[in-house]
Amino acid sequence: MTDDDALARLREMQTADLPVHGGRTLAYVYDSGLPDVDRIGREAVAAYAGSNGLDPTAFPSLLQMENDLVGYTADLLDAPADAVGTVTSGGTESCLLAVQGARDSRPDVERPRMVVASTVHAAFLKAAHYFGVEAVVVPVGPDFRADAAAMLAAVDEDPDRTVLVVVSAPSYAHGVIDPVTEVAPAAAARGIRCHVDACIGGWVLPFAARIGRDVPPWTFAVDGVTSISVDTHKYAYAPKGTSVLMHRSPAHRRPQYFAHADWPGYTMLNSTIQSTKSGGPLAGAWAVVQSLGDAGYERLTREVFEAVDRIVAGVAAIPELTLVAVPDSTLVAFVTDDTCDAFTICDEMATREWYVQPQMSYAGQPPNVHLSVSAATLAHVDEFLAALAESVAAAVAVGPVGVDPGVAAFIETLDPATLSDDDFDGLLAASGLVGGGEGLALPDRMAEVNAMLDLASPAMREALLVAFLDRLARPNR
């Protein structure tokens, strides 16, 4: 290919992707709606794409930008004067490092454990898996917030092995803030770290408080909070992918570092899981934050919460829908009555060029529709609500999606631990996730597939989707 051919091919391939601008994709992307913000971020990423964050002495501009970004974040989070932080590649890396740092802060503990609510982000379960930390998962209360008493009781079952307690601001699935003021001081009294996962809310909630919205306390102003994760590629509207992991003090951050000199090469020194890392995302985040500043973020926060409030009111006006919880932040989830289903509504919204996220049933709660609202959505809220009303009406007209009883009974008998690759291939084909001999062949409508997956146990669902991903990720030759 020529240079122009390659770029043309990129643009052609990208037409199959979800739109990242226009406020119509309410999952995966966060859109300010400001073209200049997007331009500034992209230009900064391009300018620093070849810079290497491995060695800050070789690229001092990256160190300057990281310290600037961490300082700005520290002010947002009511951090003490000696608080420190690190820019990571995204929320998952920040969560992984919070767990790894807590584990390594207690080298005396042979089998470390951490206590989390059942609504904690899956990144913490990934960290538990990677780092050999036992995750004690505690059910939440009826309001979907962490049950502070139950979490602390779980801590007290084995306090000597407990190295971390995690709460969310807000939880992803339901958009509510956990009772940080009840959990963090009690953890501190037991000598245990408390991490606040504010990956999705950490940049927007401080500005929400500034513009007068009621926000429960969750920052370093709460005694006992030892670390907080905040994603700048979410509501700081920076390019993918950056996050900031803040620590109350240098002593809290130090176990996060990795150094190794006992080999014939250079002494490896890492502040994050990555060693070599492009300076592009950091430069993009720095440029966007510098450009927007407090005034810009206050404006975007007013816009995103106006959109949230109007969507919440619009959902309440549709008889077939019910909010899962009144959102504390920018995440909205709602369920349906028995005249329709969430999966069909998601399909119907997609036909109207609105992209929303289905969430599976869990712990007796039915499937729901999940929205991550961005500032760019505000200009299109009336269109969104009209599309939602039409989608609900269409879903009611066809009735709730069903799964053949025989197939449902078969799924319930399956044990993912005993299934072969051939069994998985047959199940993937039966579920509509792949086509015979065609590789990936997703149907245009996913309601039936999602309904089938929803019937499977979490372990079976994981196994099927891992098999699906494995079939997707094969070389083009």
UniProtKB/TrEMBL annotation:
Belongs to the group II decarboxylase family. Sphingosine-1-phosphate lyase subfamily. It comes from the Bacteria. Its cofactor is pyridoxal 5'-phosphate. InterPro entries: GrpII_AminoAcid_Decarb, PyrdxlP-dep_de-COase, PyrdxlP-dep_Trfase, PyrdxlP-dep_Trfase_major, PyrdxlP-dep_Trfase_small. Gene3D superfamilies: Aspartate Aminotransferase, domain 1, Type I PLP-dependent aspartate aminotransferase-like (Major domain). This is Pyridoxal phosphate-dependent decarboxylase family protein. Signal peptide: none annotated.
